[in-house]
Amino acid sequence: MKLIMSIVNSDDAGRLVDALTSAGYRATTISTTGGFLRQGNATIFVGTEDDRVPELLQLIRENCHTRRQFVNPLPPVMEPGEMYMPTPVEVQVGGATVFVLDVAQFEHF
Ligand code: 2BA
Ligand code: 2BA
Question: Which residues line ligand 2 (CB under 6 A)?
Answer without folding.
Answer: 21, 24-28, 45-47
